[in-house]
Write a structure and sequence with these properties.
The complex is a heterodimer.
Chain A lengths: L4 E6 L2 E7 L5 H11 L3 E8 L2 E8 L6 H27 L1 H15 L29 H5 L13 H5 L14
Antiparallel strand pairs in A: 1-2, 2-4, 3-4
Helix pairs in contact in A: 1-2
Chain B lengths: L2 E6 L5 H11 L4 E6 L3 E7 L7 H20 L1
Antiparallel strand pairs in B: 1-3, 2-3
Helix pairs in contact in B: 1-2
The chains are: A alpha+beta, B alpha+beta.
């Protein structure tokens, strides 16, 4: 890739000439945007070439520093050109990923095992697995009187599945 | 004393130039001329805190940034 031509150089100001075929406008925009905090950038057009006028914000910038800035600008142009190429090459992959993500977010990709068509006749109060049955009812000994409060009460009343979480008091 | 900045129509966006004129109108008297290929902004009666060249250059950076942000 050809380096930018320096059209003129004077008092902290450089004018570059860039071939449109090598440096598309998007690439020049990208590089200019990066330099906007360090220099004043003015873009123009002469014949088939784009001109870039770079003026250092600091008036004391030396000639060498300006040339270094031009070198950095050239590197940034290359970086932006490469970035553009990678984006173009991977455009289809990017679009596929984004479209799948959007489809998933809208619920279009829900797997069939999550369809609850079979449970359509269930009310929200139905409890086919008995989850809402209180612990006392589930493990109460039929025909026995309610247990009295005491140190051994819990041992007698403890049933399968008692993990020590909920410890109901006697009635 | 006045200073000029020319913005090529194929590079800059008109909305960005107009936006810049609104943003900088408090810092000087700005006027715009239009030709077939470019818009030229004239800076006069610039705020004494800035030189006309400084204001015009800052304005050009602002218009460039606005153009880039509008096109991406």
């Amino acid at each position: 890739m050809k380096a930018p031509d320096i059209l003129s150089s004077s008092e902290g100001k450089l004018v570059l000439s860039l071939d449109k075929g090598i440096y598309p406008l998007d690439v020049i925009y990208g590089a200019s945007y990066v330099f906007i905090d360090r220099a004043y950038i003015l873009l123009g057009k002469v014949d088939d070439k784009t001109t870039v006028e770079i003026t250092a914000k600091n008036a004391r910038t030396s000639e060498d520093a300006m040339k270094a800035m031009v070198g950095e600008f050239g590197n940034e142009l290359l970086s932006q050109a490469l970035r553009k190429k990678i984006t173009r090459d991977n455009q289809q992959i990017l679009e596929t990923i984004v479209s799948q993500a959007l489809a998933g977010a809208t619920g279009a990709m829900v797997p069939s095992e999550f369809d609850d068509d079979d449970d359509d006749d269930l009310d929200f109060l139905d409890d086919p697995l008995g989850i809402a049955v209180p612990w006392e009812e589930r493990f109460k000994k039929r025909g026995s009187a309610p247990a009295q409060r005491g140190p051994d009460t819990e041992k007698e009343e403890a049933g399968p599945g008692d993990s020590g979480g909920h410890k109901p008091a006697g009635d | 004393m006045s200073t000029l900045r020319t913005f090529d129509k194929s590079i800059y966006a008109l909305a960005a130039v107009k936006d810049g004129m609104e943003a900088y109108e408090g810092l000087g008297k700005l006027s715009m001329d239009t030709s077939d290929s470019a818009w030229t902004v004239n800076f006069e009666e610039v705020d004494p805190d800035f030189t006309p060249e400084e204001l015009a250059s800052e304005f050009a950076n602002y218009v460039l940034a606005q153009t880039i942000e509008r096109r991406h």
